[in-house]
Amino acid sequence: MNEAKLFSERLIESLLAAGYASRPIVLENEFNQRYWGKPISFQTGRRWLRGEAIPTQDRLQVLAEWLNVDPHWLRFGEKLHGSVKQQRKRWDAAMTPEERQAMEVFLSLPPEKRKMVGEIIYALAKP
């Protein structure tokens, strides 16, 4: 079996485990609420689910975070123990209490509002 087909099986398994239907329209809508880059189309979601394509790394990261699975497992079918948690700890350790509180508020927002806040941050960061 090829890599894209194996990826699609893991993606479908992850969607179902997270309580979502493994349908292109569900994938398109839910993914686009969480991704700050160029949105995916219905056809892209269909290709991922049919095992015809594998998402880019940035999109794979969003899928993994949304579906609460290890990104390495989602892409390759192998688990790397502790790597994601270790990275998150390093990132979190550098924050002040005020920044941590702001991030907690941000993370409690619904996905569509988090996307809007992200777009504002990107706009403010542009030179």
From TrEMBL:
- InterPro entries in the cross-refs: Cro/C1-type_HTH, Lambda_DNA-bd_dom_sf
Give every HTH cro/C1-type domain span. Answer: 47-74
Q: Which residues constitute the signal peptide according to the record?
A: none
Name of the protein: HTH cro/C1-type domain-containing protein
Annotated source species: Marinospirillum insulare
